[in-house]
Specification:
The complex is a heterodimer of chains A (1030) and B (496).
Chain A lengths: L1 H4 L5 E9 L9 E4 L5 E3 L5 E7 L5 E5 L6 E4 L5 E5 L10 E4 L2 E4 L7 E5 H4 L18 E3 L12 E3 L12 E4 L2 E2 L12 E7 L2 H4 L10 E6 L7 E13 L9 H19 L4 H11 L38 H5 L3 E13 L3 E13 L6 E14 L4 E15 L11 H7 L45 H7 L1 E19 L3 E20 L12 E24 L2 E24 L14 E26 L3 E12 L8 E11 L5 H4 L4 E15 L11 E4 L5 E2 L12 E14 L4 E13 L2 E5 L9 E5 L2 E17 L3 E18 L9 E3 L2 E3 L7 E5 L1 E4 L6 E8 L5 E8 L7 E7 L4 E11 L2 E11 L2 E3 L1 H5 L44 E3 L2 E12 L2 H6 L4 E14 L22 E11 L1
Parallel strand pairs in A: 1-7, 13-16
Antiparallel strand pairs in A: 1-4, 2-3, 2-5, 5-6, 8-9, 10-15, 11-12, 13-14, 15-16, 17-18, 17-51, 18-19, 19-20, 20-21, 21-22, 22-23, 23-24, 24-25, 25-26, 26-27, 27-28, 28-29, 29-32, 30-31, 32-33, 33-36, 34-35, 36-37, 37-45, 38-39, 40-44, 41-42, 42-43, 45-46, 46-49, 47-48, 49-50, 50-51
Helix pairs in contact in A: 4-5
Chain B lengths: L1 H16 L14 E3 H4 L3 H14 L17 H10 L5 E2 L8 H4 L13 H22 L7 H25 L28 H19 L12 H15 L2 H12 L7 H4 L13 E5 L12 H5 L13 E2 L2 H4 L42 E5 H15 L3 H15 L10 H15 L6 H7 L4 E2 L18 E2 L12 H6 L11
Antiparallel strand pairs in B: 2-4, 3-5, 6-7
The chains are: A mainly beta (1030), B mainly alpha (496).
Chain lengths: 1030, 496
């Protein structure tokens, strides 16, 4: 090597490495550029290099948390100042509304996620990246549907009926488009603003926090970068364990026998005979998967399967409907800058198959960003981006038969995918020798008791459930500097988002065969326009540093939709409406319009970089509310004290940086989900009639308010080995827009919207980053965060205070959280009768509970209680371990949530009492069978009338997820140069590697409110990828 | 310096123009009119009224529950028949209405998915719609068209309360002081107590009286609208439950006047019970392809001749016990599949009465009232009031004689005559939604026939075979949401 060859003629170079505050940087790596000659700094930041070749001119100095810096080797001691890098808590700037702020001068609460972290995860929507990385952020897993994103909550649940989602702002403009239209490769950073001081300038839209997405701009020498990733995905949450055919028949025999005994009063013997006779009959399970006659399949006395019976078929619907899916993602970008301009142009391609067959996502993206410094006083720039995508297999959710996840779970084990010969069990073939699918109709093997006339293997292949979307942004600005300290900037943000959807049920099989196919075509587009004008002023006099801004913004959102449905499609696969013959839903069109106008201003002041103060105010008018209540003002202020700048701490060596901060402010939440709910409207019913309103209007409706207090400390210590922050908050949401339930006898729907009620979220967030090892060839850093919040309803509508507000499995009461379970309390199973037991209140003569309670075996009489606590976890967070060995990087991210419970409706649906045709969980084998049995699974009984929700199906929602594991290798600059590259890296990773939950098959991360449905489960993805820079 | 001035000028120009135009913040939906507009013209009023009629067969009206057994009046009617003794469920099928048939539905813990919540919410929603009309037009100048609209609104309200009280309480007679249902005669949102059965019937009679006055002599747009004959038909129904035999007989007689009974050919055709133009239909709804609710419709649950819930195992059948009571010469025997002739789609005893007119289309009208019912009411009231037996026989003969040429009503007298009329009700009105209300009204209790061709295996298990008169199982439970949110009710207001 060059170093060895020239060692004889070397010289010695000494130097010192310090940070911008003049503190020494220990363990920094100092290498002679283009060689392997190097060393590390000592605790005083000093280094000595020997045998430096005479030809060497440059040293490369790097250290974790700092930007790598090249310095010239001059004469004498080399002095190096390292700037903190943006990849850690020492990030330099925070993106805030209408600008940026130096992190050290920032008094609010925010966290940043940088491009390198984002790119480790294979996500289509960047909303999925944030879980576990941002303290105080709670995310659902968002399911695994191709192209889907995650839902996010910041600092608790701030609203009940209105949106609790944060506001997304992209490149400085509130964003209404599709998040998944932004290629994650194009993202430079994400700033999550959590407190009022940080977010207040977005006024009535900031109450739930703000997620600021900044896309890449050109930087440095012109370069061409390309990356490609290829992935394999399969479902990340396994199916529940369900019983097989033999158990299934025995259990159903018992369910039928018990129905005859306990339901109809027959003797055990008589009932046993009847149950054996009915078992595979038309009002039983219909199908006989064994080779013996149906009435001899199960012994009428013992209830045991006929020992001579042999299973004729055993098929897996999951295998038939799911697959290992592939994903390909390729991106290319050209970027660069000069002192007059910078540019970034990129294109991307993504093709993501769904883990369920017939589902997938395809996306093309492009982006072009340019900033030009035209003159000394004029700057202008533009960002234009577009995405065209297509989603296939937008399956119905919930209990719809066309939902493959629900369907394959609920289908009893005896029902085959393919039609079978009832004697031999052989698959029936059609005239062309192709296997015939079994649709469960009388014309085939009988009317299947679960989901007759359906076979998703057949129908999903012929059906279409797709969306084609077009998302475009046009984002220009002009910035003028004038006088000495003023700038004026006007920016426009225009988003166009169109969805062209087709739902086609085929004309051959399934639900629409009787009408020769059904096609629904809809065209929706939304258009939003934001324009703002901001004047800024900034001035330094001596130690005083003041900046201020004032501005105006207007916003217009238009959403237009059109749709129509036709039936009668004669030619298979012809789905256009022109090919249909009968109008089923006449063409409809409608348009909604929302507008907003705002004025705002803010001041930042710091003294000697030590004492910080900020204040802001915003006034918003919104078209969502009646004219006399539509204007509102929101303010905030923040204070900070950089205690580490004080002389008494200057000499404390182990403290590098420390800031104490406090903020308080008010913001609003105008996203109530309705545009005109302050007034009664008679909507056209599609047939030319104007129908009376089905919901009560409320002319006093206005936004929700959110008052938030935030305080905490940020620190960097032990020679930058440890960074961290501790923050506490107290968020009080008031004027909550409540869907206050009304009695159905009013005849106006289920609830009315009112500004009543208050919710308080208090919490703590701790974030720590520790550099365990910082050596030349080996780094190990641990990032850890934990957060916890408490949610309490502090005020409910007056009329509801006593009775509370019951909604599904929850009841809201003052002093309780918004997600406290309210259910029948399961009291086990009667050893004598096998009936499920519940608690019941004893009532006095006025119908009021006396406080005593008794046990009942009649679910219809059970009382409801607060059982099982809340869906809100006790604490949650994430841990990232990052290792670097030479050119290898290895990291893994674990996210966790502890405490809280969830109602596992999926589990409940396969723990039924004997609903013919529906699969049973293996736990059903523990059912009560005879007097004296001690168990917690009630006796099976077809048509028991006792199927009900209760605390029996509440499970622990804790989970630990290995969310991302990444191993990457970067070519060293030397090697890269040799093959004429500016850099190259390769990686392998696993997303959603494993999730540990209370019960196999459960998905506790599906929702915030602790209710699970049969949605698209998340998937596990293995990826190989490479990035090359020219 | 020049630059500076230019900039200042520009800033000043922008700053003065940034404020948005007045009215920028006033927005409105493009497909709706305001409340004021909705009652400003008679055309708008009638359009709202049509929307109300349409809501009686629409999907998920009331509580918004999207179960495929929640499609307004006929979903209530079907449950009513399934809880009686004359309709058998072939097999579990897709499960819809299984729990009604098995008498577990009404006792279920409440939620929007339960029958009682659906029924309650549906009728109260309709009541609010007509209350809005009545309230917003009360001070308008009286015109015949307005009177007609208001008359219909009163009629619809009475109809809704009559259905509510019969679902949520035992029959009228002997239960006058029992708990009623909340009475809303204005579109307000104030909690109302249950009151008494008597109060509900008083309101029904008052509304029908108003409606009769307002609609008398006025034409109607179509048989989807109530006219005076429908009001009189309702009045007869109410009087029959109140055991006001004179009124029942008089109103039934008046109500049936404008109508001709359908021929046997029509009775046994695909269209007799699914086409509003059928001569004896008094009131119903026209349902086009564009308005049909597909699988979530009455004919989906009834007609197995096309792919429907009925064809998928949910066939509705007549018990052998009743089938055998229909003479072979009676045309009505033909609307049931004769034993031994069954097919996979139409098993033995399967009904063929309620069929869609055209296979492959869901366009099929709903029947709410027809003249034969008036004959039966008139005959029963005359037979029960005493001293009018001959008249009763004549009315019965006029109706049944048309169906069965060998029929002789004069052969029945006294109690036998009354029983014969009740039997004819079961045959004639099979599947039209009268079973449970009749069981309650006539104090007969539930008696489901067993044995071959009747209730029980191999048919779907009914669980419940008999119930005594006035069984609490005949009462829908007040929706839990009502008890939870109605400040004028307590847990003690729940039905037993």
């Amino acid at each position: 090597m060059a170093g060895i060859a020239t060692a004889q003629s070397g010289r010695t170079v000494t130097g010192v490495v310090k940070d911008v505050n003049g503190k020494p940087v220990a363990d920094a790596s100092v290498v002679v550029k283009g060689t392997t000659i190097g060393t590390t700094t000592d605790s005083k930041g000093m280094f000595t290099l020997t045998s430096v070749p005479a030809s060497a001119k440059i040293l490369v100095v790097s250290s974790i948390n700092f930007e790598t810096t090249d310095v010239s080797i001059g004469n004498g001691v080399v002095s190096v100042t390292l700037k903190a890098s943006e990849d850690d808590l020492g990030e330099v700037v925070v993106t805030v509304p209408y600008g940026t702020v130096k992190r050290t001068a920032f008094t609010g609460s925010s966290n940043k996620v940088s491009a390198s972290t984002i790119n480790k995860q294979q996500v289509t929507s960047v909303s999925r990246v944030l879980e576990g990385l941002i303290p105080g952020l709670q995310a659902t897993n968002g399911g695994g549907a191709p192209g889907s994103g995650a839902a996010v909550r910041l600092r608790g649940i701030g609203s009940v009926n209105a949106s609790s989602s944060p506001l997304y702002v992209v490149n400085g403009v509130p964003y209404d488009g599709s998040i998944s239209a932004i290629a994650s490769e194009d993202i430079e950073s994400i700033d999550v603003l959590k407190d009022a001081a940080a977010a207040n300038l977005y006024g009535s839209r900031a109450a739930n926090g703000v997620i600021m997405i900044t896309t890449k701009r050109g930087k440095g020498a012109p370069s061409l970068q390309g990356s490609i990733r290829h992935s394999f995905s399969s479902r990340g949450i396994p199916e529940y364990d369900r019983v097989g055919a033999a158990d299934y028949y025995e259990l159903f025999w018992e369910a039928y026998r018990n129905s005859y005994v306990y339901g109809s009063g027959q003797t055990m013997a008589q009932a046993g005979v009847n149950a054996s006779n009915i078992l595979t009959g038309s009002s039983g399970l219909v199908y006989n998967a064994y080779n013996v006659p149906g009435n001899t399949l199960v012994d009428p006395v013992t209830g045991k399967l006929n020992p001579n019976a042999q299973l004729l078929w055993n098929e897996s619907w999951s295998d038939a409907l799911f697959r290992t899916a592939q994903r390909t993602n390729a991106n290319v970008s050209i970027s660069g800058s000069s002192d007059k301009a910078n540019y970034y142009i990129s294109g991307g391609y993504l093709n993501e198959e769904g883990a369920a067959k017939f589902s997938g996502y395809k996306r093309y993206t492009f982006r072009a960003s340019v900033d030009i410094k035209a003159t000394k006083y004029l700057k202008a720039g533009i960002n234009i981006d577009g995405a065209s995508d297509r989603r296939d297999g937008l399956f119905a959710g919930g209990t719809a038969t066309s939902n493959p996840f629900y369907y394959s779970r609920q289908m009893g084990p005896i029902y085959p995918v393919y039609e079978r010969n009832l004697t031999t069990g052989a698959i029936v073939k059609d005239a062309n020798g192709n296997p015939v699918l079994d649709f469960g109709t009388t014309a085939q093997m009988g009317s299947r008791p679960y989901a007759a006339n359906s076979n998703l293997v057949g129908t999903l292949a012929l059906d279409k459930r797709q969306q084609k979307r077009l998302n475009g942004n046009f984002n220009p600005y002009i910035e003028i500097s004038f006088l000495k300290d003023f700038t004026f900037r006007t920016q426009m943000g225009l988003n166009y988002y169109a969805i062209d959807a087709l739902t086609y049920q085929n004309n051959q099989y399934g639900d629409a065969a009787n009408v020769q196919g059904r096609s629904t075509v809809s065209n929706d587009y939304q258009f939003s326009l934001t324009g703002n004008q901001v004047i800024k002023w900034a001035k330094n006099f001596k130690k005083h540093n003041v900046s201020a801004l004032a501005g105006h913004e207007n916003y217009k959102y238009k959403s237009r939709s059109m749709s129509a449905t036709k039936t009668g499609f004669s030619y298979p696969g012809q789905t256009e409406l022109d090919n249909g013959t009968v109008v089923e839903s006449p063409p409809s069109s409608s348009e909604d319009l929302q507008t907003m106008e705002s004025y705002f201003g803010g001041v930042n002041y710091s003294y000697d970089d030590k004492y910080l103060a900020s204040a802001s105010i915003r006034t918003d008018g919104s078209s969502r509310f009646a004219s006399d209540v539509r204007w509102g003002s929101f303010y905030s202020f923040g204070l900070g004290w950089r205690i580490s700048q004080e002389s008494f701490l200057k000499n404390v060596n182990w403290i590098d940086e420390m800031k104490i901060k406090l903020s308080y402010g008010e913001s609003g939440n105008e996203n109530i989900g309705y545009f005109y709910q302050y007034k009664d409207w008679y909507y056209a019913d599609g047939l030319g009639n104007f129908a009376p309103p089905t919901r009560l209007a409320n002319k006093d409706l206005k936004w929700e308010k959110n008052r938030a207090l935030n305080y905490g400390v940020e620190f960097t210590m032990f020679k930058r080995r440890l960074q961290g922050s501790i923050e506490l908050y107290d968020r009080r949401s008031s004027d909550l827009i409540f869907g206050r339930p009304i009695e159905p006898s009013v005849g106006a729907g289920n609830d009315v919207l009112e500004n009543v009620g208050q919710v308080k979220n208090t919490g703590i967030e701790i974030q720590l980053g520790y550099n365990v090892v910082r050596k030349k060839n080996f780094d190990w850093r641990v990032d850890f965060n934990i957060s916890s919040f408490k949610n309490v309803i502090t005020e409910l509508p007056k009329a509801q205070r006593e009775k509370g507000i019951i909604s599904g499995t929850k009841k809201m009461m003052e002093g309780k959280s918004v997600y406290d379970f309210w259910l029948r309390e399961f009291a086990g199973v009667s050893a004598a009768t096998g009936r499920a037991l519940y608690y019941r209140d004893v009532l006095d003569n006025n119908g009021k509970p006396t406080g005593n309670r008794v046990i009942t075996d009649d679910a219809t009489l059970a009382s409801f209680y607060y059982v099982g606590g809340s869906a809100i976890p006790k604490f949650m967070g994430g841990i990232t371990n990052s290792f670097r060995y030479k050119n290898f990087d290895f990291s893994f991210l674990m996210t966790y949530s502890y405490g809280g419970r969830f109602y596992d409706g999926n589990y409940a649906s396969i723990m039924h009492y004997g609903s013919a045709g529906t699969a049973l969980h293996v736990d059903a084998k523990n059912r009560w069978q005879k007097p004296g049995d001690i168990t917690n699974v009630p006796r099976l009984q077809n048509a028991s009338g006792q199927e009900t929700s209760s605390s029996r199906f509440l499970l622990d929602a804790s989970y630990l997820s290995i969310k991302n594991v990444t191993l990457s290798y970067s070519l060293s600059n030397n090697v890269a140069k040799k093959i004429h590259l500016n850099g190259a890296s390769f990686f392998v990773n696993v997303d959603n590697a494993y999730i540990f939950t209370a019960k196999k098959g459960s998905d506790p991360q599906q929702s915030f409110d602790g209710v699970t449905g049969a949605g698209y489960p998340p998937f596990r993805t293995f990826t190989l990828g490479a990035t090359i820079k020219l | 310096m020049k630059n500076k001035s230019l900039s200042l000028l520009l800033v000043a120009a922008i700053a003065t123009t940034v404020g948005c135009k007045k009215g920028y913040l006033d927005t409105a939906p493009s497909n709706a009119i305001s409340l004021e507009q909705a009652y400003a013209t008679i055309a708008a009023i009638n359009s709202g009224l049509t929307a109300t009629y349409n809501s009686t067969f629409d999907f998920a009206v009331g509580n918004g529950n999207t179960g495929h057994d929640n499609y307004g009046q006929k979903s209530c009617d079907l449950a009513n028949d399934l809880m009686g003794q004359d309709m058998i469920v072939h097999s579990q099928g897709y499960g819809w209405y299984n729990r009604d048939y098995q008498y577990v539905e009404w006792t279920l813990p409440n939620g929007t998915g339960t029958r009682s919540d659906k029924v309650w919410s549906f009728y109260y929603n309709v009541i609010r719609q007509v209350n809005l009309l009545l309230d917003n037009t009360k001070n308008q100048a009286v015109t015949p068209d307005l009177e007609s609209a208001r008359g219909q609104a009163y009629g619809i309200r009475a109809w809704a309360y009559f259905n509510l009280i019969n679902n949520f309480q035992q029959t009228y007679k002997g239960n006058e002081t029992a708990k009623g249902v909340p009475l809303f005669i204005e579109p307000n949102a104030t909690s109302k107590p249950r009151g008494t059965v008597q109060q509900v019937y008083d309101q029904i009679i008052a509304d029908l009286t108003q409606a009769e006055t307002l609609l008398n002599g006025k034409p109607r747009a179509s048989k989807m609208n109530m006219d005076v004959s429908v009001i009189r038909g309702l009045r007869a129904r109410v009087a029959l439950v109140q055991e006001d035999w004179t009124a029942a007989a008089n109103y039934a007689n008046l109500a049936k006047q404008p109508y001709t009974l359908m021929s046997n050919a029509v009775y046994t055709s695909r269209t007799g019970f699914s086409t509003i133009g059928t001569s004896e239909w008094m009131w119903g709804t026209l349902i086009t392809d564009a308005q049909a609710t597909i699988y979530a419709s009455f004919f989906s649950h009834m007609d197995p001749s096309q792919l429907s819930y009925a064809q998928l195992g949910g066939q509705k059948k007549i018990p052998n016990a009743l089938y055998d009571l229909i003479p072979a010469s009676d045309a009505r025997k033909q609307v049931f599949t004769a034993p031994g002739t069954g097919t996979a789609n139409f098993p033995d005893y399967c009904q063929k009465k309620h069929l869609v007119p055209t296979i492959g289309s869901w366009a099929a009208d709903y029947l709410y009232m027809r003249a034969s019912e008036m004959y039966l009411i008139e005959a029963e009231a005359l037979a029960r009031k005493g001293g009018a037996e001959a008249q009763a026989q004549a009315v019965l003969q006029a109706m049944v004689g048309l169906r069965n040429p060998t029929y002789n009503a004069a052969a029945f007298t006294g109690t036998a005559l009354i029983n014969e009329i009740l039997l004819q009700r079961r045959i004639e009105l099979w599947g039209e939604g009268f079973s449970l209300f009749d069981i309650k009204r006539t104090h007969s209790g539930l008696n489901r026939a067993t044995g071959a061709g009747n209730h029980g295996a191999p048919n779907f298990n009914p669980i419940v075979y008999t119930q005594p008169d006035a069984s609490p199982l005949f009462l829908m439970r007040i929706p839990q949401r009502e008890l939870d949110n109605n400040t004028a009710m307590t847990a003690a207001d729940q039905n037993p």
